[in-house]
Amino acid sequence: MAQNGTTENGLPQNLIPPPLPQPCKISEIKHTKIFINNEWHSSLKGKTFPTFNPATGVKICEIEEADKADVDKAVDAAKAAGKRGSTWRRMDVSSRGRLLHKLADLLERDRCLLATMETMDTGKPFLQSFFVDLDGSIKTLRYYAGWADKIHGKTMPVGFLRWYLCVCVCVCLQWNFPLLMFMWKIAPALCCGNTVVIKPAEQTPLTALYTGALIKEAGFPPGVVNIVPGFGPTAGAAIAGHMGIDKVAFTGSTEVGQLIKEAAAKSNLKRVTLELGGKNPCIVFADADLPLAVQEAQKGAFYNQGQCCTAASRVFVEECVYDEFVRLSIASAKQITAGDPMDPCTSHGPQIDQQQFDMILELVESGKREGARLECGGYALQDKALFIQPAVFSDVIDHMRLAKEEVFGPVQCIMKFKNQEEVIERANSTHYGLAAAVFTRSVERAMRVSSALEAGTVWVNCYNALHAQAPFGGYKMSGNGRELGEYALAEYSEVKAITIKLNDQLTV
Asked: What is the pTM of this model?
């Protein structure tokens, strides 16, 4: 018999790691309809579309397809929920915070189920869904729940400024982090008292729709959050050009972001915030901790199968350590094994769909044609649909397509540089400006290079370190506005100046 406080093998119980979470068994997807006014609706045109498991190619279920008429219905519900005198508008700010905390509690309760559903729909490994996506979603809700009663106006000798609520915000989401992006958008929007219409990506609607049920369970009034699954050219276009929507927040490609801005300008000049693509530089100086730099750079290149706007897609390495960095990178990449995303041992899953899969392999071929050296990977796994073995390219030159275009797949491009000024100029020579990273032991160099890089986020000796408290967003064609942190509150609010002349005629 084990002694008190120890296991059978004599180790203290607190030294035994907890068992890894396991995927849930899901026999049926219950929430497949359009969510409006806290109720489930069929498409007004009676249309549906399938969603597939990219790891197996098997259809998961049919989803009701929202069109313009469904978007109109959702906008009407959101505007009614946000009008003066409504339950939502009369709710005190502390109660809004409590609702956001309640929604976070429900995500905690259903964390395993949501992580399983996210993995089924996206193909990302289950443990990444559980520990990264769900953890980030819960922390984002709790962070903005804390802000709900702390958004104060300012007084000054000539007037009074206060936050003024928007009426209806629309959110359009990308498929690579569907639940996390959902929370990045709705948490600050609801914290500021807005009502919301959400269009999840057609490839990955499941967790958004399930969250609709949790929103109702949490006690949000009808119409505060409405979810309209559908396609960009129909539901998305209806949203971008809708005269009843005051603001659109979009995460996705730069090309679609341009279309949204155009539609916003041609309709009611609605406000738009965009989180778009990236061609992110990762700079490794000779004095860096090389094994750490290799590990973090590959985390940046291969995480989520490379399907990240923040992907470390241009790795610049100082020439005196270039060969060693390439050697270590090849050895590291060869250790990555693709497999069943539901297996807790799997670290690399499939691409999202055939279109993305084909585009990645075509860019790999372009790299070989243009003279880059494919060191390892870059091929389709024959016995697994939509799986690509992570690729490492060396001798990549700035003019190559691999160095200019967003691959959005597991492809690492390693480039050589001579000195600091050269690499800063090359790193900034892109239309994008989302993220960047610097690896060095010199604090002075880290600060100088970070300040010079044209990117909204710069990581030093780490990669993909995102937090609910820190602002995130891009320069140039990587987008406008900021997600997360206190800065996001301004994206979902208007400032009104109220000037009161104090004299004897003013009475209470």
From this structure: 0.92
